[in-house]
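Deliverable D5.2: sample structural annotation.
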Amino acid sequence: MKCLKSKKKIIISIAAMTVAVLFVFMANSGLLNYADGVVSDAVYQKQKATDGEIVVVGIDQKALQEIGPLPWSRDIMADVISILNSGEEKPAVIAVDVLYVGESASPENDSYLANVADFGENVVTASAATYGSGIVEIGDNFYAEKRKVLAYDEPFPELAKVTNTGHINTMADSDGIIRHALLAIDVPGKGTVKSFSRTIYEKYCEVKGIAVNPEPPTIKGFFYIPFTGKGGAYYDFISASDIYYGEVDPDFFAGKIVLIGPYAAGLQDEYRTSIDHAAPTYGIEIHANLVEAFRNGFYPIEASKALQLVLLFFITFVMFIFFYDRKVLHSVVGEIIVCLGTILLAYLLYHTGGIVLHVLWIPLFVSILFVVSIAINYIKTSNEKRKVADTFGHYVDPVIMKQLLEQGTSALELGGKMHDIAVLFVDIRGFTTMSESLDPPTVVEIINSYLTLTTECIMKNHGTLDKFVGDCTMAFWNAPLSQEDPVYLACCAAMDMVEGSKALGEQLLEKYGRTVSFGIGVNWGPAVVGNIGAPRRMDYTAIGDTVNTSARLEANAPGGKILISRAVADILGDRAKVTSLGDSIKLKGKADGFEILTLDELIRK
């Protein structure tokens, strides 16, 4: 038995390990990236109130209608910058998310824009790199680079000299969602160019005279964006045309960070971000969120993927074993604790420690294990009930059968338990003589009629039909489940058999000219009850002296009589009329003085 249990544990452990490895492979493959991104974004990204220090001025539909479609002549942006700087206090930074690459057709406008920017000393301009595949040379070595800067567009030289410049390259994750930002790019012959948002922030700190927060840690140049606001969070419906036509007081922007950029559909600067998958966020708003992140100095770090995969393996391995053969309620509680606990832990780690986890992995795979385990346990339980029904269904009262189904296959285990039971044996008197004088089909019909009667009497009185041995029937009460008043029930069945045999005997006499009667014995006492035999062939039965004594009572009972032991008579008490035969009948294996009685009448409830 111990060997079988150990073997079973090994098999379960191997299965758990196999499933855990499969889950790790699926998580590592990227198949869950989209779903995990949706769940993780919902846990991590929450809109917060802004302090008004950052203002987005939109090149919106109003501006396009009133000033004209892009590209605008450079003197228009120069006028906007000049007006913003005309208040009593200038904005801390004016950042323009428009590429001014190369000289235009109007050198005067170019110089005007550069002079305005130079005068304000607070302008940040945009640049952009073009990426592609190429060969990178390091010393004597060469290697292929998938993300190589093939071209770099920067402000025309006159403007570049008087402004700070940062790159505006924005790259989405594999699911098309903006979650990461590129801190800096390495431009051949140019060196490192920081991002537009980082350049804005550092310029802001310079103007304000405040300490610069450290740069965020990066993985392959990217860092995770902790968004502060969705689309519109930094936009106060101020259009570039409002400033151009003098409809907004420049003092409103005093000391602030002013971001000017495309803010209209059709300008190809819309993105889906981790804080809002449904509505578009404009590129200028992403830069605003990044500047806010630099100001806050909150840089979430994505936990090691390898470490998370190891954790996923361990938890799914343990939960596989936990769910195996577990009660539904316990499984539900375990699933809820692990899944909600994982989500809560991820939330707390992010907001208190800046740790980013793959939120979906563990809850998803644990939920899969839970659902599969429930399905398997349901199938297993159904099979167990079928086995119990197949084993007991033909000879156990339906009420008892229902209780056995609730116990499952524990009722089918090989071995027995000691029970106090009431045992009934009934045999047909005169069967041998009758069988010699009638043809076999007639004999079978007669015995089937009598056995049907005995079975119905046993079932009616909630007994367990043990077996048929030729023309003999054995039944017992108080097993496999304890019953109320089992002796009384057994005696009721015996009386029903006697009464039923009279009517059946009359029918047989009329039809075949012959009749028979029953001899019945009932005893009460301890016996071993259970599945007796071998694993491949077992019978649910009762064995012991109590059973043998009941069989010998039946063997000595005349036709139409019920013999009982003193133990039975004492339990029946005044509910029965009995006649003592003393020890006039000697039972094999019983010492002198064993009292036998006939059950003459039984008071029915």
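Annotation notes: The chain has 18 helices and 24 strands. Residues 396-602 form a domain with the Alpha-Beta Plaits fold (CATH 3.30.70.1230).
The annotation will be released with the project's public dataset once the embargo ends.
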